[in-house]
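We modelled the chain as a single entity of 245 amino acids. Its sequence is:
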Amino acid sequence: MKLRFLGTGGYHPNERRHTAGILVPELGVLFDAGSCLFRVARYLQSPVLDLFLTHAHLDHVMGLTFLLVPILKREITVCRLHAESHVLDAVRNHLFSQPLFPIFPPFELVPLNDETVIADGRAVVTHCPLTHPGGSRGFRVDFNGRSFAYTTDTVADRSYLDFIRDVDVLIHECNFPDEMSQWCDSTGHSHTSAVAQAARDANVGRLYLTHIDPQRPDDDPIGLSTATAIFPKTFLAEDLLEVDV
């Protein structure tokens, strides 16, 4: 199983990073729908797309409007949106309100179940609550004895450690370096050492940091050495990076 990072930035795109999107091409599974979604059709290996939304903040849903073209071109024949009911309502009633975007694509709106079996029964997706203003969900995929978790827009704490425990790959937001940790609680985001500690304590295989502060387009926006000192198998994700699980 391979993962493609379509977008690794937070809040708004910059010259280096688009906002959130993690694709599993062979399974036709996508997590979040940020400004990176113009890239989906290029990498998707299935005309059926299961798209899971962590929450309804604009940097995670704005790209839903971009899917209209690949749907009309039949590059995507089925698109199921999986999210909490209030997130689906926000997408339908606000993002696709008539004055903003008058054409609602033929999405299938699917409220989250405790677990969702996807890709013709080959993979199971589960989720857990995260700490973030307005709420967010973390997701985990188990497929053929391998697993990964996607944990974004949250304050790194111990509340979800059991959920991510022993995954082969953890994708975790890291919006701030440690010297800006005072912003974490008020914004609902994470800083470097706290994320690395969570990965270490949950015994994950590898850690990829994403949802990077868009004010920092430089090569080391989060102090990667701080993370690797705590959890050596930590990597900074970049747009279009592909990794094996």
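As a brief sanity check on the tokenised model: Residues 2-238 form a domain with the Metallo-beta-lactamase; Chain A fold (CATH 3.60.15.10). The mean pLDDT is 97.
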